[in-house]
Give the backbone structure.
Amino acid sequence: QVHLVESGGGLVQAGGSLRISCAASGSISSIYAMGWYRQAPGKQRAYVASITSGNSTNYADSVKGRFTISRDNAKSTVYLQMNSLKPEDTAVYYCNVRGRLGQLLGDWGQGTQVTVSS
């Protein structure tokens, strides 16, 4: 099992930037992909972005061109750089990790709150 701790959220004005982080611990050798998800009030958790061990990235259409995902394998940490933030990006952001077969490996942590004011 992999334990995940998100950090770096906060309040930012529309058009601003924020970088959030997620540190993994535990069975990290089994991690293939690391990803970000978000849950806005009253909505289901949704996929945001992911990055594989080979640094192949994928993004939800709603964040393409604005968000950048990266990872530091030495620190077992994944980052999400968020630029040109919009009020609709307001959500609790969670990370999780997957094995090579696509299986989720981590517990859903408490997430980190990102609030974008208009």
Remarks:
- The chain has no helices and ten strands.
- The mean pLDDT is 96.
- The CA atoms of residues 70 and 79 lie 5 Å apart.
- Strands lie at 2-7, 10-13, 18-26, 33-39, 46-52, 57-59, 67-72, 77-82, 91-98, 112-117.
